[in-house]
Recover the amino acids of this structure.
């Protein structure tokens, strides 16, 4: 057995009503004067009002306007605002955009360098403030990963900061927080979670631990997502999605994601397609190319999802899985083509050139892809 490390948040508190633990956790971490980082959609849906009575004291500062998929300048501005206050902790309430922002703000409160210098791996050596993350989408899994992603308008790319300092002290995953999540966000962030599990499962860095998490996550998300999408009030589907997304986060936070994410990044950076949507569009096309290089794993997934039985050959099972993934995207009304997003086909060369630079993710992929192969994948996505 190879040596491997397993990283996660300091403590996971999960289940309906898990938010009740918030004030005790704040006390344990000596959080008294703190910032809440959230966004307009989350506060308008009443979630901030739901959380406020559970805090041990009132927040010193509430930043409630983190935009979806934030740019680096947004975080620089928020950092200046935070530094005007004396705070001793950060609470993130929202989807990946709010949580990623809070992770960076908590880590860089007294960092004096430029944020753009932090893109890449292990560029941060400590986090200044304690951090509690409460996800409201299911989801990015950001509450348990050591990654924060920002848009860098200079290079028109989404870029990651990867560091153990970004792992929250506590993740509180209360499924009821996702009930107000709009349909389109339920769909896109749900497929993102499915891709996290699938890419972690076929990653060259997968371990028996990440495999177990990914397998369970795939089953939960595959079965629950259409129901959570059809009826957002379906609490049992929301619970399965919250657990599935958390497990997918734990899997990919350790095994990594691969080419689906690498090819999605330029679509987000250049054309502002949301993270979930760009992953969903690329998923079937990358999966087809990867299939011969991870056929055994995909056969296992097809069996776990009950798409095949012992009469099917491995090839047939993989085809059934591809069909099922396309149907899952259709069932949650995710467009299947880049044409739908008005992306010009003549930018395939530039997209491929950008994607090929995301070596941090491409090296996890079961098939090593050349720029020409990446171009081909984009072409098939039109
Ligand atoms: N750090 C990681 O490990 C990681 C992993 C995957 C994605 N990401 C990043 O996360 C971001 C995407 O996050 P996301 O998909 O969670 O969406 P998001 O945080 O961008 O939110 C999308 C929209 O949904 C609304 N919303 C969220 N939860 C809601 C709720 N319960 N009720 C009502 N409205 C709600 C928000 O207000 C926002 O307008 C991207 O920037 C992506 O790159 C990070
Ligand atoms: Fe993702």
């Amino acid at each position: 057995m190879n040596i491997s490390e397993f990283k996660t948040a300091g403590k996971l508190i999960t289940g309906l009503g898990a938010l009740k633990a918030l004030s005790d956790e704040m006390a344990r971490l000596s959080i008294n004067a703190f910032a809440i980082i959230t966004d307009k959609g989350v506060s308008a849906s009443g979630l901030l009002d739901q959380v406020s009575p559970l805090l041990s004291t009132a927040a010193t500062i509430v930043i409630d306007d983190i935009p979806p998929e934030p740019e680096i300048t947004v975080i620089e501005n928020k950092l200046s605002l935070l530094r005007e206050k004396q705070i001793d902790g950060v609470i993130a309430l929202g989807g990946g955009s709010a949580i990623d922002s809070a992770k960076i703000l908590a880590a860089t409160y007294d960092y004096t360098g430029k944020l753009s210098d932090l893109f890449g791996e292990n560029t941060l050596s400590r986090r200044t403030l304690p951090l509690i993350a409460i996800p409201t989408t299911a989801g990015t899994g950001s509450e348990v990963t050591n990654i924060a992603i920002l848009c860098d308008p200079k290079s028109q790319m989404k870029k990651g900061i990867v560091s153990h300092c970004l792992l929250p002290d506590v993740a509180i995953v209360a499924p009821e927080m996702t009930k107000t999540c709009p349909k389109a966000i339920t769909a896109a962030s749900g497929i993102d979670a499915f891709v996290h599990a699938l890419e972690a499962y076929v990653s060259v860095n997968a371990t028996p631990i990440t495999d177990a998490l990914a397998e369970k996550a795939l089953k939960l998300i595959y079965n629950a997502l259409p129901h959570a999408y059809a009826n957002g009030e379906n609490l049992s589907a929301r619970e399965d999605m919250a657990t599935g997304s958390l497990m997918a986060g734990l899997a990919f936070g350790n095994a990594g994601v691969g080419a689906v994410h690498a090819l999605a990044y330029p679509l987000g950076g250049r054309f502002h397609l949301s993270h979930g949507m760009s992953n969903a569009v690329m998923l079937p096309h990358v999966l087809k190319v990867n299939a011969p290089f991870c056929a055994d794993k995909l056969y296992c997934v097809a069996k776990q999802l009950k798409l095949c039985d012992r009469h099917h050959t491995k090839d047939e099972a993989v085809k059934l899985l591809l069909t099922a993934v396309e149907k899952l995207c259709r069932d949650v009304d995710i467009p299947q083509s880049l044409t739908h997003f008005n992306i010009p086909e003549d930018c395939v060369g530039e997209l491929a050139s950008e994607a090929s630079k995301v070596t941090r993710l491409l090296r996890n992929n079961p098939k090593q892809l050349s720029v020409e192969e990446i171009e081909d994948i984009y072409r098939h996505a039109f």
Remarks:
- The pocket of fe (ii) ion (ligand 2) is lined by residues 140, 192, 196, 261, 275, 279 (CB under 6 Å).
